[in-house]
Amino acid sequence: MNKKSILQLVLLVTLATLLAVGCAKKPAPPVEEEAPMVTKMPEQEVSGIQERELTEAEIREREAQARAAAEAAAREEAARTGIQRIFFDFDQYVLTSQARDILAGNAAYLKANPEVSVRIEGHCDERGSDEYNLALGERRAQSAQKYLISLGIDSSRLDVISYGEEKPLDPGNNEEAWAKNRRAEFVVTR
């Protein structure tokens, strides 16, 4: 190798080294992380609302209100669908001809809507003992249930319950009120 070639080779290596160093990525400057913003909450309630434990009576009252709202919604659904309540004579659970006509209409609705199930609630007026009225309310609900089954409604879609005199339709203490309270209600459950 002559002197000129060696000089060219040294220049070439130096140039390549300078290019390599010059094009190298510079490391990014470290990003200073911002400290998370901390908001200090006041130690006392600002709004004036303080949580407190509910008493057992308040819990029962709230549960009763929730049940009443759910039952009211179910009754509205029954009213919207055209399912009607039926009434009974004093101290009776035998279906009147008017009750049978209404039950035929309820059965027609249930046949047209096979996804619907109902709870039949038996009710009584305030006369009679609690035990007697619970039993009579159950016989009234069962009477309506049996008639609907005889019209072709599957028994699995019909539940019964008796409320006796606990849920009067009319709180009055006269024959007109008692007549309204001797009934079976139909509540859509699904």
Task: Describe what is shown at a glance.
The chain is of the alpha+beta class. The protein contains five helices and four strands, in the order H-H-E-H-E-H-E-H-E. Helix 4 (130-150) links the parallel strand 2 (118-123) and strand 3.
Description:
This protein has 190 residues and is an alpha+beta fold. It is built from 5 helices and 4 strands. The chain has helices at 3-23, 56-81, 97-112, 130-150, 175-181; strands spanning 86-87, 118-123, 158-164, 183-188. It has a 4-stranded mixed sheet. Strand 2, helix 4 and strand 3 form a beta-alpha-beta unit.
Arithmetic mean of pLDDT: 84
Shape: elongated
Fraction in beta strands: 5-15%
Could you say which structural class the secondary elements and strand pairing correspond to?
alpha+beta
SSE succession: HHEHEHEHE
State the strand order across the main sheet.
1-4-2-3
Could you describe the largest sheet, including whether it forms a barrel?
4 strands, mixed
Distance between the termini: 101 Å
Work out the number of β strands.
Answer: 4
Give the helix proportion (percent range). Answer: 40-55%
Return Rg in Å: 40 Å
Set out the fold topology.
Layout: H1 3-23, H2 56-81, E1 86-87, H3 97-112, E2 118-123, H4 130-150, E3 158-164, H5 175-181, E4 183-188
Tags for this model:
190 residues, alpha+beta, 5 helices, 4 strands, 11% strand, elongated
